[in-house]
Specification:
Order of helices and strands: HHEEE
Number of helices: 2
Number of domains: 1
Structural class: alpha+beta
Strand order of the largest sheet: 1-3-2
Largest sheet: 3 strands, mixed
Radius of gyration: 17 Å
Strand content: 15-25%
Distance between the termini: 48 Å
Helix content: 40-55%
Shape: elongated
Amino acid sequence: MPQEALDEAVLKLARRLLRRVHASRVYEADDALMLARKVAKRFPKEPSIQRVVFVTTQRKRWGSYSTKTKTVRLNAAVRRMPA
């Protein structure tokens, strides 16, 4: 493998590992579930929320909800925003 290709592969792997480390730190929030349930009460038909996870893979959305898994996925950038 040429050195240039190896350097690029190492960079991609390092970025991926850094995202995972950041995401694991962000997942530690306990108050996210309470906050999501509080917001859910504002909807006419309140969705059932079992879990909230913060993800670093969402690029174009602030969050999403799965009716199948009853999981709210939030962009990790939300954690850095003021309440």
